[in-house]
Specification:
By secondary structure, this protein is of the alpha/beta class. Helix content is 40%, strand content 22%. It has 7 helices and 10 strands.
Length: 213
């Protein structure tokens, strides 16, 4: 869910500006999943741009407080969201933790790194939502540890139907600073892509697993 449309457009503009998101309808990327894709997103690049990372952390913080008030803990999904999650926690003067994809195979075998007490309220930070599986795996780990997960905030989502269904199944609210529709609208308005390229990008989103350039 987008909480602020102007923030969604501005975030999309900034992600395109620093090439955290690249759109190449004519020269598709190869995803690790094997999919061909006209879009590639790496939001970790935000951390290299102080003005933009500050914009993201402040809008995350503002929206979290507006929606949930101050939680007890900010938790991030490893590894992509650790940096921005820590910035948000620092901005809100809150404890921080992060969640690994699976428990460590040595030492204390932690999956959750940081102090988390049973019953504490948690807002989860993620950098990117595709299918939502890895993000929701982190939520499950937090719930198993006794956390009261209020919701998740992510920088960007592709808006795949499967991700929407996955979040609904677990009854987890997802809020994003920007999304695929606002990205395409912004990319067209700034002449980053033309109408034909926007059509290709919309077609891909309908069935990304079987899309062919």
């Amino acid at each position: 869910m987008i909480l602020n449309k102007e923030t969604a457009k501005k975030t999309a503009e900034l992600l395109l500006q620093i090439k955290a998101i690249k759109l190449q309808p004519q020269e598709p990327f190869n995803w690790a999943s094997g999919w061909k894709s006209p879009i590639y997103c790496d939001n970790r690049i935000i951390l290299s741009y102080p003005t933009i990372r500050n914009y993201v952390r402040e809008h995350f913080a503002r929206q979290i407080e507006e929606k949930y008030g101050k939680p007890d803990v900010i938790a991030a999904v490893a590894t992509g969201a650790i940096g921005i999650g820590m910035l948000v926690a620092e901005y809100l003067s809150l404890p921080f933790a992060y969640v690994r994809p699976e428990p460590k195979g040595h030492g204390r075998q932690n999956q959750i790194e940081g102090n988390l007490e049973e019953g504490q309220t948690v807002v989860v930070i993620e950098d990117l939502i595709s299918t939502g599986n890895s993000s929701l795996n982190a939520v499950k780990a937090l719930k198993e540890a006794g956390a009261n997960v209020k919701g998740m905030f992510a920088i960007f989502t592709y808006g795949f139907d499967t991700s929407v269904e996955n979040f609904e199944k677990l009854s987890i609210e997802l809020h994003t600073l920007s999304d695929y529709e606002h990205l395409l609208e912004t990319a067209q308005n700034t002449n980053y892509i033309n109408t034909e390229e926007a059509g290709i990008l919309r077609k891909w989103r309908e069935d990304p697993a079987n899309w062919k350039p």
